[in-house]
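To: structure desk
From: M.T.
Subject: fold request, one chain
Message: Could you run this one when you get a chance? Sequence is below, nothing fancy, just the single chain.
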Amino acid sequence: MYAYEHACITKGYKYIAGIDEAGRGALAGPVVAAAVILPMECQIEGVIDSKKLTAKQRDVLVDVIKSKAISVGVGISDNNTIDQINILQATLQAMNKAVTQLAQQPDYLLVDGSKMPNSHISGEAIPKGDNLSVSIAAASIVAKTTRDRIMIEFDRLYPEYSFQQHKGYPTALHRRAIVQFGPTEIHRKTFKLYVE
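Reply: Done. Structure tokens follow.
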């Protein structure tokens, strides 16, 4: 999990930011990106791809990550932005916002996926990077936890949609609610919300 970071250090980079997002495949709510710069020999037990962790494990780890990280930044693109510029561009925009929120300017970016955000900072896109880089895995935990908390807040506004359970993803329960009640203000109108 440290191979990419160590390779960056041998090339002379000092502040390496891992970047990941949460919410790309959801039908409702924002896409949230996080950027995390960890100290080089920082060991945080249990930091892996956020999808492999329980909500309780993520809640514990996010506090540890924030306490040990050199800097953490979060960027959000809401559902209206997603509808206006498409999910890929909204994701890249959220990643850029996350980088600008870092208190420490990074000199290299490790980005989960196959596309780099448009940045003047050097970096590389790593498919399945949340399983290969500790920095990206830490960012995935921050992004997922942040987004889940946003969706839990939306659950209070729209209790009939059960956002607390599915966080806006296309589960059968969510699709049934859309059919029954129609889309809310936080649904992504350009996504196929339900099967006819």
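Reply (cont.): The mean pLDDT is 95. Let me know if you need anything else for the meeting.
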